[in-house]
Amino acid sequence: MKSEHVEREPSPVLGAADGCPRILIVDDDPAVRALFARFLAEDGYHVTALGNYREAWAAVRETTYEVIVMDLSLQDIDGIEAIRNFHSGFPSMKILSVSGYMAGCVPSLVLRAGAAATLGKPATSWQLREAVYHLLDPTGTCRVPRRSAPAKLSALTAFGS
């Protein structure tokens, strides 16, 4: 699969500065991958978007990412196994698992495997942005500006502490 690399200079409008967090998006759906990359790049993050686990594993070995936003249903690996691998190999990187199949015991399995949070699909741009923001800045020191938000974050399943 073709991978997209979206990396922009930090936007002065958003107040981003050098050293801005790096986000890796891994989703085998090109439309979702491009949409998530655009949302997060607009907020001033350095974003890399890849289409499979193999490319993502190579990327995290070369570059430090603060957050990986990963589809749970990748074609080249079981999502739980991928989360375990990323978590054990790169324990400081926060994992946000995103899937349309977050029913039943799936969220607890994902969190036990090492994900810091789960997000159900479809998710709004705000829900994705807010989940990434909380993973990067759980204490509220506001490393990256937040957009105004609706009152409820219903698709977010859980956050690890």
Describe this entry's structure for a reader.
With 161 residues, the protein is an alpha/beta fold. The protein has a single domain, classed as Rossmann fold (3-Layer(aba) Sandwich). 34% of the residues lie in helices and 20% in strands. The protein has a 7-stranded mixed β-sheet, sandwiched between helices. The longest helix is centred in the first third of the chain and has 13 residues.
Describe this structure in a few short sentences.
The protein is an alpha/beta fold and 161 residues long. The protein has one domain (4-159): Rossmann fold. The protein is 34% helix and 20% strand.
Which CATH architecture?
3-Layer(aba) Sandwich
CATH fold type: Rossmann fold
**Rounded radius of gyration (Å):** 14 Å
Largest sheet: 7 strands, mixed
Total number of distinct structural domains: 1
How many beta-strand elements?
A: 7
- The CATH class name reads Alpha Beta
Helix content: 25-40%
Distance between the termini: 34 Å
- Indicate the structural class: alpha/beta
> What oligomerization state is this entry in?
single chain
